[in-house]
Structure formats: structure tokens, C-alpha cells
Amino acid sequence: MEDDQPCEEELKLIAEIKEMKARIRTARKEAADADYVTETENLPPLGRLKFKVRKELHGHLAKLTDLHWGKNSDTLVTAGQDGKLFVWDVYKCMKQNAVFLNTAWVMAVSFSPDNTRVASGGLDNILSIHNLEEPEGGTPIELSGHDGYIASIRFTDASHCVTSSGDKSCALWDLQAGKIVHRFLGHENDVNALALASHSQHFASASSDKTAKLWDLREQHCRATYWGHELDVNGVDYFPQCDYAFATSSDDGSCRMWDIRADQMLANLGDDFIQCGSTCVAVSRSGRLVMAGYDDYNCHVWDLLLEERIGIMLGHDNRISCIGVSPNGIAVATGAWDNNSFIWTAK
């Protein structure tokens, strides 16, 4: 038991880390020359927004774990723990393709930039690349490198993608070479999600260590760490019109907006009505709305500027597991543990 106790040098380092974190928090407060709530209090409210299910995508026989929109907003890929990936024609509400996986425990899926391939990963710790131009995805390319499950995948270009994992790391893959070319270390627990900036080389990660981190794809060290959530951070999404802010969602029931230029949190979205954790988050194309899935089977919609809950999406019969806004900004896709995916629009 004595071997498990930190030595004197480790205790000094822990104390130094705590002191540095406190100094960072103090510096961030000193740099806040304006109050977010005060600056936005005179904006006209959006009022209540009502969302309606326009399409219901049925076909999976087990929990949906992830989804991703195609580049033209007319296709959607969903991943279910029935061991299948379905590519949907959203307008016709029909399956375009079905990919049968080698494992049922899929957790992440992503379209390639040209929509000709999808990547998947899960509890097998393997990154699988499927060619949609071949029947049932053809023979997948399987790449190993993580020591834990793959929680999230995003392509950076046709030949590279980024993954986050339960091994506490993120990784940049060269798909042509079939290996990891950069590994991003710094989180102290599982990395549950990642989001790519659209116009830069940055990405953000969300972790069970209660933090979000900012990374540069060209470097292997963390650019910034954001503290504030009280429990696991499950979801993250960049604001689509800029690369200066991103939103996170957490088991503490809140969603938060982090501004990279201000180097701190600007908005905290939560109220007493919600008494459960948030599993995923998505930002509207305008950046005004933040939509998040929760353990109460609902998706709640927030007016970011006024920090008010202004809408709710009611329809799923189990925990919301994934959410995404279409690239054209018109529709929202949700997936849940009730095996279904819904396409919503505001009425």
C-alpha cells in the first residue's frame, strides 16, 4: 500500500500543477473585459421554437451509437450495435447502402469528404475504412493503433482522419500508409468525442476527465485546456461559421460555449428543469442555436446569446446518443437507443 502513495517530489508537482491552474483561472478572469450576459441582454428573443419530425429512419435492430451527414445534406450514415452501417437517402427515406461490420460494438462513423467511403470504429479498437462504391462496402481496410475503443472519427481530407479513443489519446492517421502519424496525449481519461474546425488545422476533444482540449493537427502538444464541467464531457461541436468557438455537453447536465480568443467559457446553458446528463451537442449553421441530446430521451434547444432554453424535440423512446445538423443548416438528425433516427426541422 505504501508504494501507491505519491512521493515527496510527486506531491510538490501536484501542488505546482494546482497553483498553475489557479493562476490560469485568475488570468482568464482578468482578461474578461465584458460580461457576456450584459452584452446580449438587449437582443430580441427568438421565442419558442417548435420542431417536427419530417422523416423517420427505421432499420437498425439495436442501439444507434453515431451518425454523420454527407456533404450535400441529402445522405446520412448511421451506426448501430446490430453490426451494421446504413447509408440513407434522406429525402426518399430509403437505404442507399448497407455495410455489415465484423463487430457489433461500433461506436463511431464518418463520411469521407467525397462521400465514397465511410470509416467506423468501436470496442474492437480497429479503424475500418469501407468503400461505398463496392457492394456492402467491400472488404474493409482495417487499421490498428489504439489501445482502447474508438469513440469518434472525422476525416480531415481524403487520405487522413482523426480519431479519439478510450486509451486517453487522439490520433491522426495516414490512410494510405495505414498508420498513425501523430498521437495527441494529455487527457487523463477516455476521450469521448472530437470536432474539427472547418477552416483551420485545429480540433477540439471532449473527455471523461471533465475537460475539453484544443489541438493543432501539425503539432503533438495541447494548445489549451478548458476546465468548468463538473462531470464527464461527452460531446463537442465547432461553430460552423468560425473557428474561434466550440460547444461542449456533459453529464453534469450543462452545455457550454468556449471562446478560443478569450481563452475561457462565455456561456453556460442549463436550467433546473433538466435533471440529467447531456450526451451529445450540435450547433446550428447560424451559431445562434445549440441543440443537445439528453438522458431524458429528449433534445433541448438553447438560444446561445440569451442562454435560454427555447425548444424541445420530443419523439424518441430512449436515451439520445447522437445528433448532427445538416451542412445546409436546414435539418437536424438525431439517433437514440430506441434503434431509430429522426430528421427534424423547425416548424
Automatic annotation (TrEMBL):
<dbReference type="InterPro" id="IPR036322">
    <property type="entry name" value="WD40_repeat_dom_sf"/>
</dbReference>
<dbReference type="Pfam" id="PF25391">
    <property type="entry name" value="WD40_Gbeta"/>
</dbReference>
<feature type="repeat" description="WD">
    <location>
        <begin position="184"/>
        <end position="225"/>
    </location>
</feature>
<dbReference type="InterPro" id="IPR020472">
    <property type="entry name" value="WD40_PAC1"/>
</dbReference>
<dbReference type="InterPro" id="IPR001632">
    <property type="entry name" value="WD40_G-protein_beta-like"/>
</dbReference>
<comment type="similarity">
    <text>Belongs to the WD repeat G protein beta family.</text>
</comment>
<feature type="repeat" description="WD">
    <location>
        <begin position="57"/>
        <end position="90"/>
    </location>
</feature>
<feature type="repeat" description="WD">
    <location>
        <begin position="313"/>
        <end position="347"/>
    </location>
</feature>
<keyword id="KW-0853">WD repeat</keyword>
<keyword id="KW-0807">Transducer</keyword>
<dbReference type="InterPro" id="IPR001680">
    <property type="entry name" value="WD40_rpt"/>
</dbReference>
<feature type="repeat" description="WD">
    <location>
        <begin position="143"/>
        <end position="183"/>
    </location>
</feature>
<keyword id="KW-0677">Repeat</keyword>
<protein>
    <submittedName>
        <fullName>Uncharacterized protein</fullName>
    </submittedName>
</protein>
<dbReference type="GO" id="GO:0007165">
    <property type="term" value="P:signal transduction"/>
</dbReference>
<dbReference type="InterPro" id="IPR015943">
    <property type="entry name" value="WD40/YVTN_repeat-like_dom_sf"/>
</dbReference>
<feature type="repeat" description="WD">
    <location>
        <begin position="226"/>
        <end position="268"/>
    </location>
</feature>
<dbReference type="InterPro" id="IPR016346">
    <property type="entry name" value="G-protein_beta_1-5"/>
</dbReference>
<dbReference type="InterPro" id="IPR019775">
    <property type="entry name" value="WD40_repeat_CS"/>
</dbReference>
